[in-house]
Amino acid sequence: MDCDLSYNYSFSMRTFSVSKSIKYRPDIDGLRAIAVLSVMLSHIGFTTFSGGYVGVDVFFVISGYLITSIIYVEVTQEKFLFKIFYERRARRILPALYFVVLLCFIPSWLLLIPQDFIDFSETVIGTVFFSSNLVLWLQSGYFDQAAELKPLLHTWSLAVEEQYYVFFPILVLIIYKTKKLNLLASIILLLVISLILSHWAAFNKPTANYYLLPTRAWELLVGSTVALLTYQKGSSTIKRLWLTSVGKLAPIIGLLMIVVPIFTFDKFTPFPSLWAILPTFGTALIIFFGRPDTLTFKILSNRIFVGIGLISYSAYLWHQPIYAFMRVQDIIEINLFSMFGAIFCSLIAAFLTWKYIEQPFRNKDKWSTNKIWGFSVIGGLLLCSMAVIIILNKGFTERFELRSPLTSANFDLAKKSNGWCFYSIDTNDALLVGSEGINCVIGAQDKKPRILFFGDSYAGMYEPFWDTIGKEYSFSVNAVTTNWCFPSVTNSFWWPSPTLAYDQCMFNRKYLAAALGNYDAIAISGVWTILEQNNIFKEVIELIELAERQNVKVIIMPHPPMLTRSSVINASHKELALRYDYESEEAAKRQNTVLQDIAKNSQNVIFIKRDSLFKNTKTGELTLSDDNVPYSLDGGHISIYGSKKAAENFLKSKQSKELHQFINNAP
To answer: How far is CA 528 from each of CA 459, 542, 598, rounded to the nearest angstrom?
Structure first.
């Protein structure tokens, strides 16, 4: 991704020995273009390019190949010097990076709420020290700021590469100088170990797997392996293969191995894992077998691809901040058209940055060694100082304050750590799988629980609602809610990554199956739209039918209005309009209609209508309360405030008496 474009290598058509002159390969710039465009198209939310994130993996292989080529050639010629190696990296990486990060402070000050501004500042420090992947990993969480709204999210990949550049040259020098180990065999061994670790972590530690070097190193090592096969004396078999028709076909296969995942992978594909072999090995085939007489070389050497490839580093730097600030602002409507405009702006900014920042800083006549190191140190200190000031001032809270009656305490999700029942075991290390997750009573706690409230986080968010209703009606509710644990008695679990929440969910469901008949009623809630998308919504219907067979009444909670997260944040801090996430909202309405129809056809099922919970008495809208603040916390879940306000509204609605009679079996 960030490897110096002026240090590219090519095969001689006749030999596999090291070329004394460093030659330029336009097809590698073409590969860069495919990589950066796929990432940019994926990140705007263009579902056709749902797997476009594999572009980063293509970058990793290219970087591993180029950097190893540089190191190996110079080591074998006894010309390698660390100070020159890192000076090249500084010239290549830091000027454009520092420039983009510096400019990001302006919209961050204007648009980011205090906590997000602090997160941004922490990432700035991580970026300067090439550890932003660690910062972002530590920041990640179940209800963390949406990734798409983080301006410097993409810097994690730069951090991975730079960490690789710290350790890899040392490894090569040690192995090469001691001659006790075979360099190529050692690299392949490390590749295999990292790949095995990555595949394991994809199913056990998915967040760490995504961000950290040990599980990403194998992708760079793929490129390193290609470089060593290229510049070491290859076997006669490899030589013959490279010059045969197989050598011409291999790059085409490699290109398909990149393109197919771009269109077929999605956010549910475990990644990186063995699936990442497709784009990484595909890139390796293109690089290794690339020669001017192949079709793939001619395609990738197209002037448009090469031009985009030349500015790909700056394009990658610019795209995420531009996308993030576009999504946070509240002036331009966010749709596919406006996001394509963001791509255009990213490419224009990339060209200008490449021409006026990247190019001049590579010129040693303009920027001597001392100047480049001085710039690196002073620039880094400036960015870190600004970030530290922001953190120490708690994100300058005076810029944005929650609008009354919202507070930091009630503008949150109801969960175990703040006094409620939602058993968020996925993010709370203090929680253990077991009975604590099924014994949490709300409402009139001096009464024996008559209602079992069961579901996932979209149930947990309604706990303040049921607490209020229970106290008003003098009954208690046993709330059994856990991440992704939708109402069902099967072992289905839609979240794709392994998590303790699965174990807790199975524990919850065993309790549900055994104890359901002990309750007068069961109240259920879940993220109904995701269940329908995953073809498991029928299991909710099966649970309703099971409850009816056991003469247990069923209360169904509605899917709340689906809004954009950025508009919720803005409306919570400033008097700005809320925006629907139209695709999600239409899906939510459809599922609510399905559930309402089920209730209409059964005397033992009642569906709580959205209007009863969220309708504004002044405007009739369902998004802002009578206090003129959102019910929503993040665009999907409602906050503690929203849940309590929904209870107040409900108690004034016509459905309140209906629910009271329903629970008490009154005619």
So the answer is: 11, 14, 14
* Nearest Cα to Cα of residue 372 among 82, 83, 47: 83
Across the beta sheet with 449-455, the strand order is 441-443, 476-481, 449-455, 521-525, 553-556, 605-607
Using an 8 Å Cβ cutoff, are 21 and 35 in contact? Answer: no
| Token pair belonging to 531 | 């269940």
Burial of 144 (0-12, 13-18, 19+ CB in 10 A): middle
Angstrom distance (rounded) from CA 214 to CA 196: 10
| Superfamily the domain 416-663 falls into | SGNH hydrolase (3.40.50.1110)
Domain segments of the chain as ranges: 26-399, 416-663
What is the chain's length?
667
Tens of pLDDT, residues 332-386: 888 888 999 999 999 999 999 999 999 999 999 899 999 999 999 999 999 999 9
Measure the CA dihedral 442/443/448/451, to 10°.
-80
**In the Cβ-directed half-sphere of 662, how many Cα atoms lie within 13 Å?**
23
Phi, psi (degrees; rounded to nearest 5) at 545: -65, -40
What does the alpha-carbon distance between residue 216 and residue 64 come to, in Å, rounded to a whole number? 11
Q: Are 635 and 564 in contact (CB under 8 A)?
A: yes
For residue 261, is the peptide bond before it cis, meaning its omega torsion is within 30 degrees of 0?
no
| Per-residue tokens: 465 | 């609602």
Helix H segments across 129-235? 132-139, 155-178, 183-204, 206-211, 213-231
Q: What is the pTM of this model?
A: 0.81
